[in-house]
Amino acid sequence: MARDRVLQxxxxxxxxxxxxxxxxxxxxxxCQHCGCIxxxxxxIIGHHKIELTxxxxxxxxxxxxxxxxxxxxxxxxxxxxxRFGYQNAKEVYLIYGPPLSGKMSLVRQQLQRGDLVVxxxxxxxxxxxxxxxxxxxxxxxxxxxxxxxLIDNIKTRLGKWGNAWIVGGYPEKxxxxxxxxxxxxxxxxxxxxxxxxxxxxxxxxxxRYRQDEWRGxxxxxxxxYRE
Length: 227
Hints:
This protein is α/β, with parallel strands linked by helices. 46% of the residues lie in helices and 11% in strands.
């Protein structure tokens, strides 16, 4: 694949080899994750904290930045990429809270390339081609179908995804706890007071013409929410 060739060319380049050897000379031969001694320098993996892609590999602030590269052993490297025996080491998180509480912002802070995100707003956008805030009622059953299919994948751990993030309002305690039990998810509440959500709504330019609609979503969530 062309993608693989781009990355292979980087990892076989003199720049990368010289950079990696320089890190080993500076840091030694101890794995920065588990602390074990790696006897042979050839077995020391230069692991990028931000996974390299054809789009970012030429950005030396990422690919050749000492702060973005760790020296680790093969076992820890396989664990990082969830392969060769670590495929089932998947974490699932259910992020819930009121509209405009910053749920996706929270996810993006922790999200890694290859993670699976199940978010109704994003699914609506993918199915309709419209902005995330525009949700045609006619597509609701289709979007729910896609969402349920992805959640079934999470329940059975189907696929090679890393961690999974289920994002939604889930104001009703029984429903969110049942979903968490079914998927093995950790519940994470994205806290925001009613007035904070209303203030964010008023300041959100993309929702300027949908104030009443989204105020209704906020009101409904707080009416239904049970701790």
